[in-house]
Design brief:
four-stranded antiparallel β-sheet; about 40% strand; alpha+beta; Late embryogenesis abundant protein; signal
């Protein structure tokens, strides 16, 4: 009986050790993934599509009458869906579950969200995950002026004006284990936004 008990304990410890190693390997793989913003879609400001800004091939802030009301209510929402492609270049099969995402403007948090997915990526496999957000620009607009903020969103190409970060997790044994810290996916996220805006207004 003692031998059987010892054997059960030994097997249990071996299995726990294997799970721990697998957990570490998958979390480490998350840091080696390739993350790319493929597109930014369905962008709306103050409840209106960015097509509302299109005036003779340019951008007209005055064409958005909802701006005044948004400033009065202190709610100037920027909404969009970010299509994020995740590619696993490692030999570790990784099961990605919930992950948090953070959008920063000028180095300050603008929006935080999370998404639950059931993604199983082997070596060389990819998947596109849509990340939706609704951020209130009122605070930034009050500090910098609405004209400048919207102009920066439409035309800023770099300088880390907007950045996108994520904190993914792997699921093992029904439990999520998050990557330690946020991974910067796109430090020039404003460039992706500007590119998407220009595609729309130049149609």
């Amino acid at each position: 009986m003692k031998k059987i008990g010892f054997l059960i304990i030994a097997v249990s410890l071996f299995m726990l050790s294997g799970c721990a190693l697998n957990q570490k390997a998958q979390i480490a793989a998350l840091g080696q993934f390739n993350y790319d913003v493929t597109s930014v879609q369905n962008m709306r400001i103050a409840g209106r599509d960015i097509n509302s800004f299109n005036t003779d091939g340019g951008v007209s802030i005055s064409s958005l009458p909802g701006i005044a009301m948004a400033l009065l209510t202190k709610d100037l929402p920027l909404e969009a869906t970010v299509n994020l492609q995740m590619t696993n270049p490692t030999s570790t099969v990784t099961k990605v579950n919930e992950f948090k995402y953070l959008i920063e403007m000028g180095g300050k948090p603008l929006f935080e969200g999370s998404v639950n997915e059931n993604i199983n990526l082997g070596q060389g496999q990819s998947m596109v995950v849509p990340l939706s957000f609704r951020a209130n620009l009122f605070g930034v607009a009050k500090e910098q002026g609405i004209e400048k903020v919207l102009s920066d969103i439409f035309s800023r190409k770099s300088d880390a004006f907007l950045s996108l970060k994520i904190k993914p997790s792997v699921q093992i044994g029904g439990r999520n284990y998050f990557y330690p810290g946020y991974i910067t996916v796109d430090k020039d996220f404003g460039r992706s936004v500007s590119r998407s805006v220009n595609k729309v207004i130049n149609k």
